[in-house]
Amino acid sequence: MALNSLDRSLPGGGPYFSAPAVWGPGGGPGQVLTAEERAMLAGIATIVRFRKGESIYEDGDDASALFNIVTGMVKAYRLLPDQRKHIVGFLFPNDLIGLAENGKYVNSAEALTAVTLYKIPAAAIESRLRLHPGLDFQLIGKLCHDLRDAQGHAFFLSKHRAAAKLGLFLQMLEIQQAGQGASAGEVFLPMSRSDVGSYVGISSEAVSRSFRDLAGRGAIGFSDRRHVQIIDRARLEEAISESDSPVANT
Amino acid sequence: MALNSLDRSLPGGGPYFSAPAVWGPGGGPGQVLTAEERAMLAGIATIVRFRKGESIYEDGDDASALFNIVTGMVKAYRLLPDQRKHIVGFLFPNDLIGLAENGKYVNSAEALTAVTLYKIPAAAIESRLRLHPGLDFQLIGKLCHDLRDAQGHAFFLSKHRAAAKLGLFLQMLEIQQAGQGASAGEVFLPMSRSDVGSYVGISSEAVSRSFRDLAGRGAIGFSDRRHVQIIDRARLEEAISESDSPVANT
DNA sequence: CGTAGAATTGAGACTCGTCAAGAAGCGTGG
DNA sequence: CCACGCTTCTTGACGAGTCTCAATTCTACG
């Protein structure tokens, strides 16, 4: 519900994504596409929708398009040799998904909620980038951002206590969702406990237990299995930094 | 020693980096800079050297330049609030380091060995990118590559057994170093046990113990604390996949 | 050659993974 | 609308693996 009270109704103005400046001093919150750039992209993009649980693309498929999320949440995962899934990230409105390597997707994406996206054909991308020099700066900025996301993910995993990982995870989701207009302190968890566990590197049972512990400490509260509210930030921070990750002095 | 028998002597032909194609079917091993592009970069780049242990740049500094490693190895880390270090990656010849956000570096870099790099002033980058449309494709490719590296890092951390993490770590280093002309099966570890532990998410003691165990199994051997050889790849693989990471079905 | 830091090794505590059972939620179909 | 069944989630008990603390050995550098 509260996921996109952002002023961005579906028939809206075309693809949209932004990211902090890379080299410049960043004279503002973020670089954004110009109106012309958006219009150009809108000309080649189409709107597609997926229901909860549907697959958007799969690992190894030919990368026919790049997607720009308008509404909803998506999980990106990679299939391990033993058929299990490793969650590499969760994606939100304005995110760009479907980056490829050598023309093939390198992971799979599935809708966690109903999702609306702009689908931008891959064939059109490269040539358009040449014509619109500003665009690739956007893309570079976006990639840098994704890179930091991945490093943040690694940071979760480097924590050893389950409660610390989940605390950071909740903080990340809250920041994301606050940016989408959700009420502060409220976090929506559309993904399963298994997905959370796979992302932060613990078992689904440990997810349950640690959520319960955090709630017991008064740091968070559940109105529903999928809706958490952050009650006491100090206690949450405390849980995150208690007996931190191993080593690291040198 | 064996780190750069690659045909790339220091007075060489200027900055050099390559990465797999992103969207195209990738008609080859990698996109590389054209001779003109390298010449152009050489015109604005200078060569700098650092001794083992010296700091190349630090988190929060103004991002004055981008660096391209010619020779040597570098560690990138982030300082945690409690003054400890979290290793975010190890970098090798041809890697690009010093990406920034809003004009500030987002992590610190330190030489693990004697290092030679091209220093490319940040001020010159943006304008040059506009003049040379091919360059940003390079950069985009590079970023995608780094992104996958970070995801690979996350993958280490998602493994729970220490031996598995170290096995993957050794494989990663071997691949890197083989590309630099090192003899196959030989891995050089210029970083401390603490650095390794911080990177793969275990304590330095666990690094010691697990290396010993891997050696005991006959998977690897040490000629020296810093020089490992991979003796039995099958056994190494075995150690990596024994009782994999937790959960992940859904 | 001596000292400071790194690496190794050992012993004990604690967390989390695994296995297993029960509860709760969701969708389907009557 | 309710009943049914399946999946997901929660909770418990046990065991394995790693962290911590601490002592010892090794290495590198002055």
Structural description of this entry:
Two copies of one chain form a homodimer. With 250 residues, chain A is an alpha+beta fold. Chain A has seven helices and 15 strands. Chain A has helices spanning 35-44, 122-131, 133-158, 162-179, 193-200, 204-216, 233-241, and strands at residues 18-19, 31-32, 46-50, 55-57, 65-71, 74-79, 85-91, 96-97, 100-101, 104-105, 108-111, 115-121, 186-188, 220-224, 227-230. In chain A, the strands form five sheets. In chain A, strands 3-12-5-8 form a four-stranded antiparallel sheet. Chain A has a four-stranded antiparallel sheet with strand order 4-11-6-7. In chain A, a hairpin with a 5-residue loop joins strand 6 and strand 7 (85-91). The radius of gyration of chain A is 19 Å and the shape is globular. The N and C termini of chain A lie far apart (48 Å).
Fill in the keyword field for this structure:
globular; 250 residues; four-stranded antiparallel β-sheet; homodimer; DNA-binding; alpha+beta
Side-by-side strand order of the widest sheet of chain A: 3-12-5-8
* Share in helix of chain A: 25-40%
Oligomer: homodimer
Shape of chain A: globular
Question: Helix count of chain A, per DSSP?
Answer: 7
> What ranges of chain A have pLDDT less than 50 throughout 5 or more consecutive residues?
1-11
Q: Identify the biggest protein-protein contact and residues per side.
A: A-B, 63 and 64 residues
What Rg of chain A, in angstroms, do the CA atoms define? 19 Å
Query: What amount of the residues of chain A lies in strands?
Result: 15-25%
Between the first and last Cα atoms of chain A, what is the distance in angstroms? 48 Å
Element string of chain A (H = helix, E = strand): EEHEEEEEEEEEEHHHEHHEEH
Given helix and strand content, the structural type of chain A is alpha+beta
Largest sheet of chain A: 4 strands, antiparallel
In total, the number of strands of chain A is 15
**What is the average of the pLDDT values of chain A?**
87
